[in-house]
Amino acid sequence: MQTYLTSFVVAALAGSALTPVARLLSFRWGAVSSPGGRHIHGQAIARLGGLGIFAAFMTTVISLVATGFANSVLEPEQLRLGLGLLIGGSVMFAVGLYDDLKTLRALYKLYGQILAAAIAWHFGFRVDVVDLPMLPSFETGILSLPLTIIWIVGIINAVNLIDGLDGLAAGVVFFAAVTNFVVAWMMGTTLVAMVMATLAGAVLGFLFFNFNPARIFMGDSGSYFLGFILAACSIAGPLQKASAAVSIAVPLVALGVPIIDTLLAIVRRFLEKRPLFSPDRGHIHHRLLDMGITHRRAVLIIYGVTVLLCISSIAIAFGRQWQVGAAILGVSAVLFGLIRFIGYFEYLMVLGRQKQRMRSRHVEWLRKLVLKVPAKWGAETTHDTLLEQLGWLAREAKLDSIEVRHKGELIKRFAGNDYQDMSDRDVTFASFPFFGEAGDVRFGWKSEYGDVPPQMDILLQLVVDQLEEHLRRVGSSWVPAAHDSVLAAEADPEPSLKPARS
Question: Which of 139, 202, 447, 483 has its CA 20 to 30 A from that of 42?
Fold first, then answer.
């Protein structure tokens, strides 16, 4: 226990001493987050806090090895695992640091994460056994490498995504590290216990400068490094088979908030048809702020939920079967309550409804027909035959009706295939004027939404614009005189030079 306590204290002191140095380097190198966009702070903030965390962690590890503390408690096999952890963590830190300084494409960052995960797998950090509560354990076999990569990359990005408020990601990682330390220490997995004690100390030293109001952010260099260490230590090779202390369930529950936030982000971006790695303001912490909750209180709420989840993960690791079941029910209730509290179910329903509106069947039918309108209408040579083409449009687009009015008088009404009484409550109408206010075209179609989707509005406006253009072409009497003079001026743009009559 003395070694673990020493690791924690040394890392905390190193973190508190090196973080201000990282802050100075951030401003010197221009690695700062400016106000605006998704950032809620009002001034430029240094974002190389990950440099302080990484330096504190490595300083502590080197000190423990140099003084013999680490060698006295670790076995040779564990020293090899520790080497792999440091190499993979360094790769992940380097990728994040480059992104903080120069900005790196999302795909290249993913490649770096996969490389770090592959290094961890090579040194023995593998998902060889999946051991979940109340379910039989099973060997992964040839799926070990892809499952390991998915797990490590997933946790890295989960920590990165939740890094949106002062002290949020650092606090969640601190509680998760303390939980993993307690479980690993009680189960006798010394490597995991030592690494987690060191990581918790380094994060605590950084958190003094990162809690609201923050003077420095951890940046991608910090979130990537922390996520990698947490993910790798939960699958520490032979240690995973030896006990349930580092089974998937413990980190899965302890990091429940960032994992759920990541899953919700995937669903949200799928519904919005946006790239998976595109930023937005739909995360759990953003939803709390949008509810009017203060910055610090939002962080404390997520802290509280994380502590409850960490306690549950300890119960899962050491409890009997009924206690494990109760812990899982408690975890489910806590996460469900958090999601329900921030109104996420309603939020996803609204997104789904918007997606359905934007890609409704009428939008799709009309989108394909708009491309055929110029050729179809261009073949007509008279006013009346041109108007008759609106009947073709009504039928092909499955509209209930198209009505044409000129100077307030109903001129034509074309019924589509599904035409019914226009008093039906589920019929949506959209009217568009032509030639200024000389007339208008009103479209009607059955819709369960009751309003006009933006895509439908644009497509119908294109149809009316085409109608105006072709009415001019065929010499319709509806074309105002002003339009005739404009056309004449366009045909003879040169001004007259004849002298005025006296």
Answer: 202
